[in-house]
Amino acid sequence: xxxxxxxxxxxxxxxxxxxxxxxxxxxxxxxxxxxxxxxxxxxxxxxxxxxxxxxxxxxxxxxxxxxxxxxxxxxxxxxxxxxxxxxxxxxxxxxxxxxxxxxxxxxxxxxxxxxxxxxxxxxxxxxxxxxxxxxxxxxxxxxxxxxxxxxxxxxxxxxxxxxxxxxxxxxxxxxxxxxxxxxxxxxxxxxxxxxxxxxxxxxxxxxxxxxxxxxxxxxxxxxxxxxxxxxxxxxxxxxxxxxxxxxxxxxxxxxxxxxxxxxxxxxxxxxxxxxxxxxxx
Length: 281
Prior knowledge:
- By secondary structure, the protein is mainly alpha-helical.
- The chain is 59% helix and 5% strand.
- The chain has helices at 7-15, 21-38, 75-91, 94-97, 99-109, 111-119, 138-152, 156-172, 176-179, 187-202, 205-222, 247-263, 271-280; strands at 43-45, 51-52, 64-65, 183-184, 233-235, 240-241.
- Helix 10 packs parallel to helix 12 (247-263).
- The two termini are 18 Å apart.
């Protein structure tokens, strides 16, 4: 059963209650067009005002930024890539469908330069979390989007990066409750969805196992038994939650679970339990 849904898919679904298909397209297209038109795949040197398209042989610059927030290495951008990809497929609009693909080409084309900048103690605004691996939120969401891009553009550097992030997550999980100051409900998406998709891509059960364990852990630690809702944070050191019912966090959990169920094999030992948690919501 295909449970997958993204932000844009959700907009389309909800809008369908109030409008015909043509009206939905008229609502959504201006937002998608605005994202595509705003995104400039270039760097701006804030000191000189120079715009830089190619970093090959470029010397170290201390004031480079990426102006478009949609091209920042953050979890929010990853959702945009996923949503535009699905919208592009639905509307047969190549500029939407390939937006994420172009973004990852831009990131990895400039990866060597960014590593050189970091070695000198500088950064590039918008790429602070790139080549970091420890970004539970940003790397996980970006990798979930990259799995979908990789299926159409199978670059070895993409797979190597995804596996490095996945290996970090698996190793990190061994002592997560001891090493992390807090655990957020949105990690169901930012880690779970990536690992479920990587399991689907590679066929390796360890990624599905990790994903299921992540869902069960979040459910156990963060669900309020009185309301059935999830609290925002769990603090391992205190063994308590913050008791705040975070609506956006419930959204993260919901979108995470439907994406996970789309990729988790129905014969996996944890499938029924994850499906049960989804239905409880």
